[in-house]
Amino acid sequence: MSSKGRIKVGIVGYGTIGKRVADAVALQDDMELVGVTANSYNHRIIAAQRKGYALYAVGDAAPLQAAGMEIAGTMDDLLAKVDIVIDATPSPLGAQNLVKYRKAGVKAILQGGEDADAAECSFNAQANYADAVGKSYVRVVSCNTTALSRVLGALSSRAKIGHVSATIMRRAMDPGEKGKTVMNAIEPSFSFPSHHGPDVKTVLPDIDIFSVAFKVPTTLMHVHSLEIELKGPLTTEQARDALREAPRIHLLPPKAGLDTTAQIMELGKDLGQPRGDFMEVAAWEKGVQVEGGKLHVIMAVHQESIVVPENIDAVRAMMGDKDAAASMRKTDGTLGIGKRAHKGK
Fold first, then answer.
1. Burial class of residue 221 (count of CB atoms within 10 Å of its CB; 0-12, 13-18, 19+)
2. Nearest in space to 327 (alpha carbons), one of 310, 307, 304
3. Cα separations in angstroms, 108 against 88, 289, 307
4. How far is CA 179 from the centre of its chain?
5. Which helix (H) or strand (E) holds 12?
6. Domain coordinates in residue numbering, the chain
7. DSSP code of 18?
8. Confidence (pTM)
9. Using CA atoms, how far apart are residues 21 and 85, in angstroms rounded to an integer?
10. Secondary structure of 276-311 in the HEC alphabet?
11. SS in 3 state form for 82-149?
């Protein structure tokens, strides 16, 4: 750490996740955003420079400089200045970059696209914060796994749950992307289970879960439908209360008029979230029901932003902060995450 005690953080990979995490780091009074990497000239890098973020070139800096970018140095220069790197590059680049991080002697956070065995542990702040304390290489699990871990962790703290069957309807691509996607079609995954269920077990090993996934023609959010076997008493209202009171879960009340993922994303904009993000799991209250000894949960997941607070908490854990609840409160406070004003039934 620096002499002032602030954690020096570098962002490698300034895309969908990286740009959001960079903004989040910049809001923390116990962290210093040293800089972000620039791989090519694009609109994201232009925005980063306008925000005053120092740019460090991956590879040849000449094309970036020729385009008018101010380059502070190379990626190696960035690594020499930081305590920890948040790697938000596409898989498998994060795991490949570990060679550089080890050589530079810096800690690193990988994202959920990497294999679990690439890091010392997988991470979800609510589920297993303590596992990451003092670690050098940690993997923040994917957007879908983050959502599942938050919800199943909250429910399993209230009642004994058995087998979980998860159906995941995945967005086809992020809004700002272009390329091949499904259009006027639904594409099932033929992996049984899909990777989401096994990934949950990397942070909640005692959860018995099986998942299937479908790619659907939307860019806004994922939607999950869960059927959870109950092995102990739990009423519908108790289940709703467990989710309502848990951190980073927003229970959507029926009278709020939020029946679609588009309306949830509009709520993010109305609440003043940067980019209209929604970092909480959005669970429909009327979709949380106990029937015949099983709990059903229907929820939506904003894939672009849900893992942002987890990356911030992972930084603190890896740098030795053992207080998970305090870290989450601090992170949520700086990012504007909290229980929303919808209290009507």
1. buried
2. 310
3. 10, 40, 16
4. 23
5. strand 7-12
6. 7-141+307-335, 143-301
7. H
8. 0.94
9. 11
10. HCCCCEEEEHHHCEEECCEEEEEEEECCCCCCHHHH
11. CCEEEECCCCCHHHHHHHHHHHHCCEEEECCCCCHHHCCEEECHHHHHHHHCCCCEEEECCHHHHHHH
**Residue 125 in contact with residue 204, Cβ under 8 Å?**
no
CATH no., domain 7-141+307-335: 3.40.50.720
- How many other CB atoms are there within 10 angstroms of residue 31's CB atom? 22
C-alpha 299 chain-centroid distance: 15
Instruction: Please check whether residue 290 is in contact with residue 235, taking contact to mean a CB–CB distance below 8 angstroms.
Output: yes
The fraction of the chain above a pLDDT of 70, given in percent, is 97
Q: Tell me the torsion sign for CA atoms 120, 320, 85, 329.
A: positive
Non-local CB neighbours of 3 within 8 Å, separated by 6+ positions: none
Residues 10, 315, 304, 260: what is their CA dihedral angle, to the nearest 10 degrees?
-160
Cα dihedral 283→287→289→295 (10° resolution): -60
pLDDT tens-digit map of 88-128: 999 999 999 999 999 999 999 999 999 999 999 999 999 99
As a whole number of angstroms, the distance between CA 78 and CA 141 comes to: 25
* Residues acting as catalytic residues: 143
Residue 65 makes CB contacts below 8 A (sequence gap 6+) with: 71
Domain 143-301 has CATH 1.10.1200.10: no
Please spell the DSSP secondary structure of 178-228, one letter per residue.
-S---SS--EE---SS-THHHHHTTT-TT--EEEEEEEES-SS-EEEEEEE
- Per-residue confidence (pLDDT) for residue 4, from 0 to 100: 58
The residues facing 76 across adjacent strands are: none
**Structure-token pair, residue 173:** 């691509």
Contact 90, 179 (CB under 8 A): no
d(CA 308, CA 235): 32
> Omega before 254 cis (within 30°)?
no
